[in-house]
């Protein structure tokens, strides 16, 4: 694996191998007072975030540190980006400094792909290979989030193939939804997107999933329901009448959660808007896998870094 830019770069065997590695790393750390493995000693991992993040940025930093990599965080506000430096120049600067891996989040869809293309071309001159990990590019993709969600489904449900997963809410602006649809379909799950028509992207009928506008009708047949964050910062128009109306139609209330089968789990990529997307009592119930997703995020990102960097000679 050279880069991780999209879940569509992974076939079922490759995705399963990443999940299996995450499981093995999780087991290797169990019971350790000092959570440190020598796996990536001598490697340098740089996180470069042009958007705010808590879970993704911190979990990548922890993942690198737990595998003994030198981990450095670069934020747009504290770098030469604030002086007008281009994305290309910033990327090539970090690569030329010897970064083995750059984890990038950017508001522009396709940014990670462009960075990978630039660093690949520059490699012919510098001889330095830098792996690029897409940590979220605009409304396009978020592959490691989809992998950690798959790890959580596997952990809580015993498997993914044949399971039915509902993804609810702001699909239009959600890179998480897109990555999950394609990865879960690759792993054999049935995915149903549940959202008002105004929050569905153009071309969604070509995705490997089913689409519904009726949350109550879908809940009794789901093995897992994933609530999405309403991304107000990306909205430039009235996509629904009001927050209250959204909560009434698409929020996961205790009454709605009771419609789920007993074994079903509740997920959310975070950050949650409690009371609108999901009721606090549902987010904190035994059926909630939300904190499990966060924990699995560290091990999955360890696995991604391992597959990209461990023993890599080119």
Automatic annotation (TrEMBL):
Keywords: Pyrimidine biosynthesis, Transferase
GO molecular function, one term: aspartate carbamoyltransferase activity
Residues binding carbamoyl phosphate: 55-56, 105, 142, 145, 270-271
Record Pfam families: OTCace, OTCace_N
GO biological process, one term: 'de novo' UMP biosynthetic process
Binding positions for L-aspartate per the UniProt entry: 83, 175, 229
Domain Aspartate/ornithine carbamoyltransferase carbamoyl-P binding: 2-155
Family annotation (HAMAP family): Asp_carb_tr
Family: Belongs to the aspartate/ornithine carbamoyltransferase superfamily. ATCase family.
Job of this protein: Catalyzes the condensation of carbamoyl phosphate and aspartate to form carbamoyl aspartate and inorganic phosphate, the committed step in the de novo pyrimidine nucleotide biosynthesis pathway.
Protein name in the entry: Aspartate carbamoyltransferase
Organism placement in taxonomy: Bacteria, Bacillati, Actinomycetota, Actinomycetes, Pseudonocardiales
Designated gene of the protein: pyrB
